[in-house]
Amino acid sequence: MGDFSGILTKEQILVTTEEALRRFGVAKTSVIDVARILNVSHGTIYRHFKSKNELLEGVTEKWLDEKIIKPLTAVCKDTSMEGPQHLQTYLRTLIELKHHYAREDEEMFKMYAKVTDEAADLIYKHVNHITDQMGEIITRSRIKSEEPSRLARTIFYATIRFHHPAHAYEWKSPTIYKEFLDVWTLLEKGFISEK
Amino acid sequence: MGDFSGILTKEQILVTTEEALRRFGVAKTSVIDVARILNVSHGTIYRHFKSKNELLEGVTEKWLDEKIIKPLTAVCKDTSMEGPQHLQTYLRTLIELKHHYAREDEEMFKMYAKVTDEAADLIYKHVNHITDQMGEIITRSRIKSEEPSRLARTIFYATIRFHHPAHAYEWKSPTIYKEFLDVWTLLEKGFISEK
After folding, report:
1. pLDDT category, B195, cuts 50, 70, 90?
2. Which residues in chain A are contacts of B82 at CB distance < 8 A?
3. What's the gap in Å between the CA of B110 and the closest CA on chain A?
4. Which domains does chain B have, with CATH numbers?
5. SS3 helix, strand, coil % of chain A, rounded to 5?
6. CA angle at B129 for the pair B125 and B131, rounded to the nearest 5°
């Protein structure tokens, strides 16, 4: 608790909301709870976020940036790798992060899955961020492509079973990683041998 | 309405349940409603289906068999096609059927999407049916594969965005079919040109 009324930033509200969500769950956390913990009036919160939904979106965006985009950016910038191997490592990192948080940070993952269904703009931005980085890797690599960003998006779509939260229930399967590698090999080599 | 008490079959219960679901919606249809329409006691229904859920699964299985598997079987058996073209037509038919029913038979599609989340056995059987037929087409075709059923399953997974009901909200996009063709071309040819 603390008196933030003078200097309260969006960031502080988001950090506090995330704490409240972990403690009480998404359904039971209200804007009033967040205001109470921050020792401000709920009007102060509403000045920054117009509704509980907007607050949840803010937390999800922050969570995606920190937990998914930040480590992915490190992989994207890693110049020790190149070509298909770099792209595969990038995608594998995306998949491993999603599977990890689906297991280990269930409350936040469930919220992210819910927001995916509802906050089209936020998810559009998130997917663009990832496919842009994939496109960068393709451009720098020896993968021949006239349209790197289109190829990036196509690979993203073809692997969606392994990173889209709607498929989280399939990630518990012991063969899921082997199935990703099968898809990856097919994307790399194609199934038509007579070219 | 009619007195079916003597000769009531599972099939008749399922047909009546489907009618009731269309009329009242999934949430508002009870086993008692179905019994009332059939003019039997609800005990008679419970003799065939142990719960409302089992009844819904029965209707979904019937719906999938009639609306999806039946036309797909016709494509699978069509000897006028062969090779990748046959496989693509099969998959395109699967996708077009799913998109069609998501638009035109919303109540039943929503139920099928719900059952997909919950009735693992039913969906496992449905997916096996489809990947078995894809495997058959691969075996008969000039597609070289040492494990046709594994290749079939891998292609099924790589195209899941276009036929899994969790992605139905993405099917409204005007570019969805073009995106499927991009994925298909990638699966056929692969992205590595130097082989």
Report:
1. very low
2. none
3. 15
4. 1-50 (1.10.10), 56-189 (1.10.357.10)
5. 75, 0, 25
6. 115
